[in-house]
Write a structure and sequence with these properties.
mainly alpha, 119 residues
Amino acid sequence: MDSLFFVQAAGVAFATYLAFAAMWLQYLAVMNLKENRSKLTVAAKLWAYPMLIVGVLSDVLFNLAIGTVVYVELPHELLFTTRCNRHIGEKGWRGNVARWFCRNFMDPFDPAGNHCDGR
């Protein structure tokens, strides 16, 4: 029974990693589209706009699933960045988590350099 628990826990951890990796890749793609939007041809736009829709839907699902676990709370907002922005000015552990996510995974890859607010 103990070995089954560890196998299941490893499976959940791996699934969480894959969800985070997929979401981050989606974010990187959207930020690249944002930076190069003036260069998009009509053909590229036909591919890009559905990706943006998938990106927003993925962000909502990521916030509901992973964000709920990371912040140990139900979301008050749809998007993960909005949740990070709500916590970023806090002095507690949730503020630390928000600043860590923004500093390491969002701000450096946003063409504006400041994807998250409130720092």
